[in-house]
Design a protein that fits this description.
Layout lengths: L3 E7 L2 E6 L5 E5 L3 H4 L12
Length: 47
């Protein structure tokens, strides 16, 4: 699994910088984060 750092959040889209190669990816939340029934509007944070 790749590791990265969230550098920007816009709505449900995130810009994630891969730590090993400094490549920036556009990503969305899916899987476990989306299945959690939390009341948070944005469960991920930049930084």
């Amino acid at each position: 699994m790749k590791k990265g750092l969230i550098i920007k959040s816009t709505g449900s889209w995130y810009q994630v910088q891969e730590i090993a190669t400094n490549t920036i990816y556009e990503a969305r939340i899916r899987g476990k984060f989306k299945l959690l029934k939390t009341r948070l509007t944005n469960p991920l944070a930049v930084g």
